[in-house]
Description:
- This protein is an alpha/beta fold and about 375 residues long.
- It has a single domain (about 20-235, about 275-320), classed as Cytosolic phospholipase A2 catalytic domain.
- It contains eleven helices and eleven strands.
- Helix 1 runs parallel beside helix 2, helix 1 (about 30-45) runs antiparallel to helix 3 (about 70-80) and helix 8 (about 235-245) runs antiparallel to helix 9 (about 255-275).
- GO terms for molecular function: hydrolase activity.
- InterPro entries: Acyl_Trfase/lysoPLipase, DUF6363, NTE, PNPLA_dom, YjjU-like.
- This is Patatin.
Amino acid sequence: MNSSAAPTSFPLYATKRPKLALIAEGGGQRGIFTAGVLDAWLEAGYDPFDMFIGTSAGSQNLTSFLARQKGYAKRLIRGLSRHKRFFQLGRGLMGKHIVDLDWYFEKTKEANRILDFKAAKESLGNRELLITATNSRDRKPYFLSPKGSGNQWRELLKASSALPFLYKQGVKLTTEYNAVSVSENKTNSLPQAQPESDYYLDGGLGAPLPVREAYERGARKIVVIRTGDVNFQAQSAWLHKLKSLVCATGHCPKTINYLVQHEQAYQQELAFIANPPADVEIIQIFAGTKLHSKLLGSADSDLRHDYKVGVEAGRDYLFEHGELNLPIGDTSFDTSNDDLTRDIIPNSAHIQHSATQFEKQRLSA
């Protein structure tokens, strides 16, 4: 697994415009909003990106987008992530995984749920895909690129989604050579080393919103699909109060430290987005109101709602950027089936249900 950047050669006009990155945030089942955005783009044949960075559920969404499997992420979130086998609090009392990622990803090998890594690799081409994961030993975020088989890619996705406590110690990965963490100096030559294994956890713990990483890798236009609303700040007064009470005993559970780390990392990224360098444009795609779904345990009706909001957000983005020739509000997608279809509905209904918001930081002097 290699975190070094690869030369970009797709699309052909890449050298005539700023390097364009797409970032997909995590958020568990709230990732169904991202699935909707990306399905709308697949429907329109829209993929101008040079770089992709996915965190947790975002890395799964980006993989199915690259595989050109429209509707795939939605089916897995509505189906597998709501299955009683996937999430059981009682398993934690028996020392087992509360969230059974092993079962979940084994299901992606079945004929009717196959995740087409071959197609994803072909459509990725010479572009760059980075999957974030947090090393449990040094607690730093790493940006890992799938270089081997579909099984290796699948293990990266699992590691990026492995929340501490819910999935025990994490996923054991063996790097082909040293990956460079975000906190280390990046040079053109990586230190050579023998393959080594470590346990990796959810990428959102160390890099929940890796906008700075995209910028440092040369992206000068960055599109971020968010699963939090525009006012989400990741600040939890109760978390710091809990830490002060629990850790006063001299024993501070790793889970609390990870949550505090996630909050701090999120705040740093939000500060970067609020005051970006002069040579970068950052476009954020939000749901205009808080999504109905949760990290886990969402009702199917809430997931269906948030997917539809995501589809509308994706189409609004295309219209905003001249990639769609129909007025906003003229079309929507019928989400009653797994296959995406389109129905005409009145503008007023679209406005009522869409509530899509774009926040932009343009080039500034």
